[in-house]
Amino acid sequence: MKIYxxxxxKGSTSILGGTELSKNDPVIETLGTVDELNSTIGILYSSLxxxxxxxxxxxxxxxxxxxxxxxxxxxxxxxxxxxxxxxQRLIEADVKRLEVEIDxxxxxxxxxxxxxxxxxxxxxxYAHMCRSxxxxxxxxxxxxxSKYPLPENLLKFFNRLSDYFFTLGRTLDxxx
Length: 176
Fold this sequence. Notes:
By secondary structure, this protein is mainly α. It has a single domain (27-174), classed as Cobalamin adenosyltransferase-like (Hypothetical Protein Ta1238, Chain: A), CATH 1.20.1200.10. The chain contains 5 helices and 2 strands; from the N terminus they run ββααααα. The chain has a two-stranded antiparallel sheet. Helix 1 packs antiparallel against helix 2 (51-74), helix 3 (92-107) runs parallel beside helix 5 (152-174) and helix 4 packs antiparallel against helix 5. The radius of gyration is 18 Å and the shape is globular.
């Protein structure tokens, strides 16, 4: 099988489930931004040696794949005659895990008293890049959500995820 299909040569693409959309459709924009976040996390992952931080990032990357399947099927959820396959969903425990990780890091940080400029360390700068791409993904999801309802935990997860990357960036700056 060749990597190129030529199906997208005219500006459309197919998503999970076979729905064909324009490449500038908000659903495609959202899927692409989550994919970009996943790649950016890969850069951050590669810059770290700490096993627990790397394990957490791998877990997050797995959740991003779950997120993209939820986004891809969101438009099908509004159609009465379409059966949505049983796909994995983010659950409240996933949101809680991020909150616990944020709180553990935050306990060790000084009180925040000023704006944070990314770039203290390379890994911290990567964490802040992840944060900003995550925020863009969240904004894209809100656009999709206004037309196709997304699972509540998906929006919560991305809101906490950007906080996680912010706190991780601060933490990595303290490990200079």
